[in-house]
Amino acid sequence: MTAATGPRVSVVMIFLNSERYIAEAIESVLAQDLRDFELIMVDDGSTDGSTALTRGYAKQYPDRCFYLEHPGHANRGMSASRNAGVRLARASLLSFIDGDDVWPQSKLREQLEILDAHPEIGMVAGAACYWRSWQGGEDECVPGGHIQDQPVPPGAATTAVYPLGAAQAPCMSIMIRREVLERVGASEDSFTGMYEDQALLAKVYLETSVWFSSRRWLFYRQHDMSCMAESERCGTYHVARKRFLDWFETYLVQRAVSDPAIWVAIRKAQFPYQHPCLAAVQARAAKLSHLLRRAVGKVRRAF
User: Fold this and answer.
1) Is 2 a member of any domain?
2) What is the tally of structural domains in the chain?
3) Range of the domain at 287
4) pTM of the full structure
5) What is the number of other CB atoms lying within 10 angstroms of the CB of residue 200?
6) What is the mean pLDDT of the chain?
7) Most confident among 50-64, 135-149, 229-243, 266-280 (mean pLDDT)
8) Taking the mean position of all CA atoms in its chain, how far away is CA 107?
9) Within 13 A of 82's CA, how many CA atoms are on the CB side?
10) pLDDT digit string (tens) for 68-80?
11) How high is the pLDDT of residue 286?
């Protein structure tokens, strides 16, 4: 990395009150076996010791680590924080990590190798370890995407991967070309928490070919203060999901997307929110049908 050319990869880390975990996250980035990167740490208005801690890393590694905050140390939300980091970044490739997660040592190198080998690919994502063993639980490796280790053409992941499809969505430990982010307009500032990652990924799926790797590139820390845990605790998941679906419908109209499969998928996803009573009846009927099939199966096995 030189001042004239800049790094190959800019890593953007957003955080809010992550004092307990953020040093481990930073150290996992600094330990990467690909050395041609910079780390931009974006403080979303922390009130704990994570502000001083990240400023300390920026002082210790002035050529590699950079601290950034919103004016007035404001809390602007996850999307606005990612976008602030992207604006400061110098590289043509960007990767993201949250302040409570950890990378394996080969993460950046392996993602860069795939993008270099496949110039038609705009983004690469991988599997994640849903990391519970850090506090005595059991880990689970979860693949991202519906097919792995091959190019997925634009639009194909839209209907196959959550939130419109059945396949698991990748975590945000992605690597993406800056030119793709610029074409889709980066993250949506209006999404401050839940679904901020899905809003960005939904735009990317439509814009470019992507690659879902079978390799595990993230230890996704499971804890009670995460965005998802808070949503489940407060019962706001379906509020966030409905908001995303309404936003995505507007986005599809603005982009003049006419693919009938995408429109069928979004109408299906919106149905429970637009027709809750009918959706509840259908859900009960589906449950009764499932119980009936199980009962018939037991009778057949008995005879």
Assistant:
1) no
2) 2
3) 270-302
4) 0.86
5) 25
6) 90
7) 50-64
8) 15
9) 25
10) 999 999 999 999 9
11) 63
Give the residue from 118, 120, 107, 100 showing the smallest Cα distance to 173.
Answer: 107
CA distances from 191 to 41, 76, 244 (A): 20, 10, 9
Kind plus residue range of the DSSP H or E element containing 212: strand 209-221
Within a domain: residue 264? no
Q: 47 and 102 share a domain? A: yes
277 and 236 within one domain: no
- What CATH number does residue 102 fall under? 3.90.550.10
Confidence band, pLDDT 50/70/90 cuts, at residue 281: low
Question: Within the chain, how many helices (H) and strands (E) appear?
Answer: 11, 9
Tokens of 186: 């980066």
- Tokens 């924080």, located at residue: 81
How many Å apart are CA 220 and CA 44, to the nearest integer? 20
Based on the domain organization, do 49 and 165 belong to the same domain?
yes
* Upper half-sphere CA count for residue 211 (Cβ side, 13 Å): 24
What was the pLDDT predicted at 5?
72
